Amino acid sequence: MRTTSGGGSMAAMAGTLQELGYELAQKALDQQEAALDDLRTRTGTLLTATALVATFLGARALDGATNRALALSGVGFSIGCIVLCVYVLAPRRSISLAFSGSAARAYFVASNAKLDDAYLTLADWMDYVWRSNQIVIARLDLAFRGGATMLVAAIGVWSSGLAIH
Fold it and tell me: What ranges in the chain are assigned the alpha helix state H?
């Protein structure tokens, strides 16, 4: 453990540039996993909010107290929000966040790779996986934002319909 000038300690530094690259790539994948978990948590909250809004505000708008077109528009927006939330929450085979240790070991043993070469190759693999994941996560984030927009639209339409009546 190295100590900083302030007396605290920090983790041991990587021994080689290849090891540093590996550690940075691993950290990027860990951060990506945390961001995906956060997105899914927020999506679950959005889905819950949609259910509550549809139950209380939507039911009031649909009981005949408002213009039918406004009430049904709100239903359409809330259904759109639910569909987008389910899209975000559905499991994805296209997202990879870890490697098989035994498969990596077998690959490097079979190719008689040196440790630095293994670090370099693993870092390259993780960077490729990160880039591939990022494309999918960007689509999921867009779907989340679309769902949030649809919920706001449903609230606006139903509230307007109730206010007009």
Answer: 17-53, 59-60, 68-89, 101-110, 115-164
